[in-house]
Amino acid sequence: MTSQNPSTRRRYAVAGLGHRSHMYVDAILGDHADVAELAAFCEPNRGRAAVYTDLAAERGRPGVPTYAPADLEQMITAEHVDTLIVTTPDATHADLVARALRAGADVVVEKPLTTTAQGCRTITDAVAETSRSVVMTFNYRYAPRNSELRRVIASGEIGEVTSVHFEWVLDSVHGADYFRRWHRLKDVSGGLLVHKSSHHFDLVSWWIADAPTRVYARGGLKVYGDTSPVAREMAERDAAAGLPPRPARGTGSADGTRGWEGRAGDRWALDLRADERLKALYLDAEHHDGYVRDQDVFSAGITIEDNLALLVDYERGATLTYSLNAHGPWEGYRVSVNGTKGRAELEVVERGSVELDERGRSILDPSANPGAWEGDDVRPFGDRLVVQKHWGRAREVPIPAGIGGHGGGDAILLQDVFRAPVEGARHDPLGRAAGYLDGVRAVAVGISGNASLASGQPVDVADLGLGVSISVPWPPERPAGAGSAEPVVAPHDAHPTPTSDPAGATA
Ligand SMILES: NC(=O)c1ccc[n+]([C@@H]2O[C@H](COP(=O)([O-])OP(=O)(O)OC[C@H]3O[C@@H](n4cnc5c(N)ncnc54)[C@H](O)[C@@H]3O)[C@@H](O)[C@H]2O)c1
């Protein structure tokens, strides 16, 4: 992590200028400008690149150079890039991460680390060869409610964890959004088990300080897609009303133009013109590369699942039962952790119901806009963590208020990402900062789950050939100076030793 630059500010390049990169660009030009400089962009779409270069100029950094992905190495050298931030579609991560490391830059990469076992090997090989740093931005760890659950488990209050039951519900606006663009293709996103659930599998491994060993998965595409009962019923209703087949994209749906006549305000569609940012980033830029952001969720070609159920074994004996649903009437999650001395339960409502405005619009990701959506009395917006020991009464654990997106996780994460390399890592007894090994551990569940969905059989994680051991050291080291009241946490992986089988010959 040595800087190429003598100044105290590290130079960052951002690869992939879509939705997610905004958070990082904003942090570099704003709250963390004293420790970070924006050196360059790497983006193939000239339209999106222009949106971001204009934004940077407005924020006092004119003329940020943009490079094509093929010129990544040249960019790192010519622009003296210390760290590449990767916010591109999931299947492109491994190549960009490995190339950046070999070109002499550290990497900050969005989840999921990669989508395949081969991608894991590509990254673990490059880390082993270069010994450079790869930071995984697992922002969910930093959400105060998730941090508090970690604290409870690590304190030993509920004893040794025996099992975890974890249910995640995406609602019919946010959930539907994964079926409109590249996420709908398993070879680009890894499906929701990799793209979305890698957040959740990381949380479980981190909460219980353990590694997955075996995965059995069931699931399917049951609501979205052109052959689901919902799609068939809709098509029959449209035909009875004399309407032509649904348009291939949602733009026009809010006001009934461009083929949406007779279906104005369709609740499953996204009209890119209704949101200035979506229009500028995607609709106005699509003639450059044909990336269509608003495909109909009932169109053909979807290769991912919208309902998933998993049974996962962990190394020290705990089991996880997990479910993901992408078309719920509300959004949030429920986690129950059973231990030898008691039980902890976390319940989170991010959006109690989906209510659309008069133009048929809603916020896509409710967790990214906390408080923007109030629930009702029956399902109020908010979170609750309850712990109960055997033979004791339940007690509610206070959850500190978070600030900003993703349950308050984004803002604290950015401090670790940008300040730690310059000011030194903060002492964090919860060990929230994540590295590439945490990323491998998280995608190992989804990749195994995808293999299990394909074969109908349980899959041993060891058979994937990930190129590195994902075991979590146990018992964990007690952080220096930790008193008995301080939680015990497993050490965060800096540079674990790759296995002697980096090419994955065990697969
Ligand atoms: N942690 C979170 O909460 C969170 C939230 C949203 C997205 N993400 C992650 O961020 C990443 C980006 O998601 P998004 O919604 O911004 O996607 P997006 O489609 O909006 O943006 C991706 C951008 O990458 C560009 N691109 C494609 N291939 C490239 C390449 N080889 N090199 C450089 N640029 C390339 C595309 O043209 C596009 O501009 C994904 O991995 C996603 O999982 C994380």
TrEMBL record:
GO terms for molecular function: nucleotide binding. Residues 240-252 have a biased composition (Low complexity). Residues 238-259, 476-507 are annotated as: Disordered. SUPFAM superfamilies: Glyceraldehyde-3-phosphate dehydrogenase-like, C-terminal domain, NAD(P)-binding Rossmann-fold domains. Pfam families: GFO_IDH_MocA (PF01408), GFO_IDH_MocA_C (PF02894). It comes from the Bacteria. InterPro entries: Gfo/Idh/MocA-like_OxRdtase_C, Gfo/Idh/MocA-like_OxRdtase_N, Gfo/Idh/MocA_Oxidoreductases, NAD(P)-bd_dom_sf. Residues 11-136 form the Gfo/Idh/MocA-like oxidoreductase N-terminal domain. Residues 151-352 form the Gfo/Idh/MocA-like oxidoreductase C-terminal domain. Belongs to the Gfo/Idh/MocA family. This is Gfo/Idh/MocA family oxidoreductase.
